[in-house]
Design brief:
The chain has about 260 residues and is an alpha+beta fold. The chain contains 8 helices and 5 strands. Strands 1, 2, 3, 4 and 5 form a 5-stranded antiparallel beta sheet that branches. The longest helix has about 55 residues. The chain is rod-shaped, with a radius of gyration of 51 Å.
């Protein structure tokens, strides 16, 4: 089976070459239509008011984070709002970001996740969203006339300095395109080879059919031209034997005597 496949490929090498070129074009088209996506993330921590920490009691601000869940949710909602989103994405068209509370941490941590078509656009968008978090927090508190000593503040915990390329979708698209191209190449090679074989067999049968009547006519001429004496006379030249005149006279004497 493998030997037959190799022979077919060698016979129809031009179909294989054309199919491989088509496969390359399909792979490039798939890569171009689904380029890699770059991702980056960062986190912002909300801190309790200064008066709450500086007063009597616990002096460590990180131990006063239990009652900041509501402010954290408000900041998340503000950053996801259309007003802030339009301002940020106006400078970074095509970028996407999502702001949530960090599910991996128990404190008031805002998680920012950004994706874009280039590494630079991803990092720049992340920086803009992280910078918008304290502004959104300050706007919310200013709208409620919160005194400065009772204001909640924030600090940036972490941020990716370099974006990570995510190529899962690109890889799947390229693999699918290459698989389709190879399948088409195999099918075209087998099909062209089968058609060529059928045409060759048909021409052989036609040649045999054209040669058969000529052989039959030659045999017929040979059989008709042979007579009983072993000679060869043409049809239609048969001769009738007649007795000589002397024999006719001897057989009829009375017809020769005058009355």
């Amino acid at each position: 089976m493998l030997v037959e496949v190799i022979k077919t490929v060698l016979r129809r090498w031009y179909v294989v070459v054309a199919g491989l070129l088509l496969t390359g074009v399909l792979g490039y088209a798939a890569y171009s239509s689904t380029p890699p996506v770059y991702e980056a993330s960062g986190t912002v921590l909300l801190l309790p008011p200064e008066d709450q920490v500086s007063g009597e009691g616990i002096k460590n601000p990180f131990l006063q984070l239990n009652n900041l869940d509501v402010p954290t949710s408000l900041v998340v909602a503000r950053l996801n709002g259309d007003e802030v989103r339009e301002q940020i994405l106006e400078d970074q068209p095509g970028a996407l970001y999502e702001v949530t509370t960090d599910p991996t941490m128990r404190g008031p941590v805002v998680l920012v996740q950004v994706s874009a078509q280039s590494a630079k656009a991803t990092v720049d968008t992340l920086e803009q969203v992280l910078a918008a978090a304290p502004t959104a927090l300050a706007d919310l508190q200013r709208q409620q006339d919160v005194p400065k000593g009772d204001s909640i503040t924030s600090m940036q915990l972490a941020a990716d300095l370099e974006a990570t390329a995510v190529t899962r979708a690109t890889t799947r698209a390229v693999v699918a395109a290459v698989a389709v191209g190879l399948a088409l190449t195999a099918g075209a090679t087998a099909g062209v080879d089968a058609i060529a074989r059928r045409l060759r067999a048909r021409r052989r049968r036609q040649a045999e059919a054209e040669a058969a009547p000529a052989d039959a006519s030659e045999g017929a001429v040979t059989s008709d031209s042979t007579d009983t004496d072993g000679g060869t006379d043409a049809p239609g030249n048969e001769q009738t034997w007649e007795p000589p005149e002397e024999e006719l006279a001897a057989q009829s004497p009375r017809s020769l005597t005058p009355p």
